[in-house]
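Hi team,

Filling in the usual template for the complex we talked about on Friday. All components are listed, including any nucleic acid strands or ligand strings, so the model treats them as one assembly.

SUBMITTER: L.P.
PURPOSE: interface mapping
COMPONENTS: two
RESIDUES: 425
SEQUENCES:
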Amino acid sequence: MLDQKLIRENPTFVKENLSLRGKDYNISHIQELAVKKKEIDIEVSNLQYESKKLSKLIGQEINKSKNNNSLQLNNLKKKGNEYRIKISEFEEKQRIFDKEINNEILSLPNFPSKDAPIGKDESNNVQVKTWGEPLKEESLKSHWEIGESLNLFDFTKSTKISKSRFITLIGNGARLERALINFMLDMHIKNGYLELMPPALVNSESLTGSGQLPKFSNESFKCSNDDLWLSPTAEVPLTAFHRNEIIDKSQLPIKYVAYSPCFRREAGSYGRDTKGLIRLHQFNKVELYWFCDPRESLEAHQKITADAESILKKLNLPYRLVDICTGDLGFSSSRTFDLEVWLPSSKCYREISSCSNCLDFQARRSSIRTKIDKKNTYLHTLNGSGLAIGRTMAAILENGQQNDGSVKIPEALVPYFGSNYLKLA
RNA sequence: GGAGAGGUGGCUGAGUGGUCGAAAGCGAACGAUUCGAAAUCGUUUAAUAGGGAACUAUUCGUGGGUUCGAAUCCCACCCUCUCCGCCA
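RESULT (copied from the run log):
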């Protein structure tokens, strides 16, 4: 959430910063509302002051005269009543304005960082570096072909259970998924992260706090009888874990790692990635999350990205690091580094982790602060996948495929998986 | 799901219509004392908005209502705890 005062007092600044995202944002409407609202606030405050003064006077008079029904008193009460009516009229207006302004401000995305490359869309993202040698042989099989031939998962049967874009992992497939989750968690814990296993269902307030609501209600599954949603990413419960808190500076940075299932409606992606493990309604993810001192979030962003990268390196998967351009940034993010893993069958890099610095955007929505020089200050939050499990599995299958149809398991994963090769059982 | 209890400041906890934003205690900060510390004494110590200060308003789970005046009364909702039932 952007600062309301900033919108009110410096709309040009806000508009310019937002327009870096390549879209026009209509700030003037919100700005007008905010200014009007402030006027109303002042008016209400003045009326309340008068009315409060009068009430006190009445109290004193009653104490003094012991007669609470004199003509003078009744006149005072009548005046008080007038105040009340007037105030309630203004308060009604206040409520309407508040609701509208809040809704609009909550729908504005974060400012892009000045360091982010300027651009309109994906095509303007900047490749920062690559790691490893991408396999470029022809006739390499896709992960879904490999997976089905090794009987690791079944898509058609899963359609029966739920619908398309759901998967059931079978035997070694399930085992590999588990191995990856444990491997990643252990790595990150060793790196100083505290593991959290949060609820998979989250309420509206939590989704608003991290930025999914009110604008993207379409992208999450909602439970019909409760104010609960299936969490689209552990980022949501992790942010909400500290909502409405003032965290002591000595505790920062707080670094969490959480495994969670993630649920996404993927509305509007019909026909895209219909095959394989790339785009599912439900997938597993190990998420990294930092709460940090606002003065340290730039470094933290480098670190969290490096922590996510370390997994890819350990698994020996070729990848590249991409600096996301202003037009392609997620709603809450000011700067994002994507890690993209090489998928030989499609001969391209695919996103496997997204590491974002949200600055105080989520902290303001969620009211998470720390004291700096005795002043309460919104802290900064960062998140990064470390990594998406399904996509990692896809990458392992494709990059580790052997001529005999088996798949070589990355060395670091062998203790977790229990075998060097993935073969037909 | 049934029955009951309860939600007050960083924490514990008092407060049932009038200087109550709220006693007391704990914790914390600062000062005195000390070579230093503990103990002791003193002072300070909620948040948000109004550009700092002064000052003002709001906030005692949330939203309404009654009243000149609500932490306190009324209504609705949410949450927590205990007991019973059911359940992995």
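MY TAKE: Residues 5, 9, 38, 41-42, 44-46, 48-49, 51-52, 54-60, 62-63, 73, 76-84, 227, 246, 376 of chain A lie near RNA strand B (CB under 10 Å from a C1'). The longest strand of chain A covers residues 282-292.

Thanks, L.
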